[in-house]
Write a structure and sequence with these properties.
The structure is a single chain. The chain contains three helices and eight strands, in the order ββααββββββα. About 15% of the residues are buried. It has helices spanning about 40-65, 70-90, 155-175, and strands at about 1-5, 30, 95-100, 105-110, 115-120, 125-130, 135-145, 145-150. By secondary structure, the protein is α+β, with helices and mostly antiparallel strands. The longest helix has 24 residues, at about 40-65. The strands form two sheets. A five-stranded antiparallel sheet has the order 1-2-3-4-5, covered by helices on one side. It has a three-stranded antiparallel sheet with strand order 6-7-8, covered by helices on one side. Strand 3 and strand 4 (about 105-110) form a beta hairpin. The two termini are about 25 Å apart. The protein folds into two domains: about 1-35 and about 90-175, PH-domain like (Roll); about 40-90.
Length: about 180
């Protein structure tokens, strides 16, 4: 998660360009992306090691004449490869939250789908669902009967930090 509370003036003293969220400088901006611990190099190494282990474990069966074992091992390897690729594709999602004095913009982009929600920041509240054992389980933006879950890709401690920052930005806007 990348969050910022931008300064309304750039270093040279000029106002920044419009953000598309109400044509005012953002009071709060955050970009949330899913965590993926396996890098592309790690993926190649993992698949190579699994392939070598599969070949080593099926060779004795090949020697004994049970050659179909190699085919089923290959199907397992193919299924694992597809599962990793689907996981990597879902990891390209992005959730952006931009708060200006006029609107709160939530933009969620996942592979094959893009959605946007716009709220009035003065009427929007951040709803929290907590669990004693796991911490902050869910955050949702609620305004005028509409409820949208945010920060689902964050861990409970990250979600709590994000909730605190967003709540502070919304409270600052209400105070003027």
């Amino acid at each position: 998660m990348k969050a910022s509370n931008p300064n309304p003036e750039d270093r040279d003293g000029t106002r920044p360009a419009a953000t598309g969220a109400g044509d005012l400088a953002p009071v709060f901006a955050a970009t949330i992306t899913p965590h993926r611990s396996l890098t592309p190099a790690g993926f190649r190494l993992t698949m190579t090691l699994i392939c070598l282990a599969m070949i080593a474990s099926t060779m004795p069966f090949m020697v004994l004449g049970a050659w179909p074992v190699l085919g089923f091992g290959g199907l397992d390897l193919l299924a694992l490869y597809i599962a990793f690729k689907v996981n990597f594709r879902s990891g390209r999602g992005v959730e952006e939250i931009i708060v200006t004095p006029l609107e709160l913009l939530l933009r969620r982009v996942t592979p094959g789908r893009r959605r946007e929600w716009r709220f009035n920041p003065l009427w929007t509240r951040l709803e929290r669902r907590e669990n004693d054992e796991f911490g902050l389980e869910q955050l949702a933006l609620v305004s005028r009967g509409q409820r949208v879950v945010v920060g689902a890709w964050l861990s409970p401690p990250e979600r709590a930090t994000f909730a605190e920052a967003l709540s502070q930005a919304l409270a600052d806007l209400r105070r003027g």
